[in-house]
Amino acid sequence: MNAPLTASRLSVVAAALTDADGRVLLAQRPSTHHHAGLWEFPGGKREQHESPLQALRRELHEELGIEVQSAEPLICIPFDLGQRPIELDVYQVSRFAGVPVALEHQALHWVERRALAQYPLPQADRPAAAALSRPDRMAVTPEGIAAPSVAEGVIGLLRAGHRLIQLRCPQLDASAQRELAAALLPDVRKFAADLLLNGDIEGAERLGCGLHLRSAQLQQTRPRLASGQILSAACHDLADLARAEALRVDCVVLGAVMSTATHPGRAALGWAGFAQLRACSSLPIYAIGGLCADDLTTARRHGAQGVAAIRAFWPLP
Length: 317
Ligand SMILES: Nc1nc2c([nH]c(=O)n2[C@@H]2O[C@H](COP(=O)(O)OP(=O)(O)OP(=O)(O)O)[C@@H](O)[C@H]2O)c(=O)[nH]1
Ligand SMILES: [Mg+2]
Hints:
alpha/beta, Nucleoside Triphosphate Pyrophosphohydrolase, TIM Barrel, 2 domains, 8-stranded parallel beta barrel, binds magnesium ion, 8-oxo-GDP phosphatase activity, EC 3.6.1.55, 8-oxo-7,8-dihydroguanosine triphosphate pyrophosphatase activity
């Protein structure tokens, strides 16, 4: 059965068309349309009788003259901050017949994934650009274990394919956490991964690594980080998300989606609550709280960049 079209959000389907080199097609919106001149993923409004895939096939035929052969769901973004609330359902399309031609757009560009964010995109597209270019998992180190075990576990995470690791060691003082980060950074860089220091602004500035701000730190001015140093932030509600957006963070971690043993007192958002908050921000958002890798598909269906977890990802017993 087709997902119902609701009056509250306009249902829009769009395609991240990829070529053999993994580049993604962006299309520049016509000067006569809403969002004129911005670069978007080709697609358009789903009609009442259509499934998302039927709408995608029709739109890509009309706009690019191609036939879609297969499409995988990438991310479905509820977004309420524009002129009209939309649900932007983005599919990854790597198999299609024909060569895309700009039948309705001003121009087409094949873009390296890392360069997507440099294009002026509609606000709702930012989470899709991040879904195409940034890790879908953030691993957070568990508390209460000695520094050598944290180091061993982080190496295990890198070997298991994790590329975004938050070093969170409340059991160590700030200087010991910083020392541990400094020792781990050569390995982190060898794996082309990113390490985020939890809460230690000065440490991240000095070491040149990433930083994860606690929600209580969101009132401060933006830390002095270079463009390659990822800035992330813990958020629990709308006010946190607004502050994180004002600090121009690269991503946030939002939860708890499910109730967890580590934070038993905190009310869980559930996926519906998560999506409501997601719709009020254009930031890439990792969902956290009682989640594991099996929840990635559900997370993406609710507009998340992916899943952040402690125990579910930790490779040591
Ligand atoms: N196709 C597309 N639309 C997007 C994206 N991001 C985004 O906010 N939108 C918004 O979604 C809405 C519908 O898109 P559209 O203008 O392509 O619709 P359409 O192809 O059916 O065109 P039409 O209005 O001429 O019939 C527009 O308000 C558009 O700005 C995106 O990446 N791709
Ligand atoms: Mg369109």
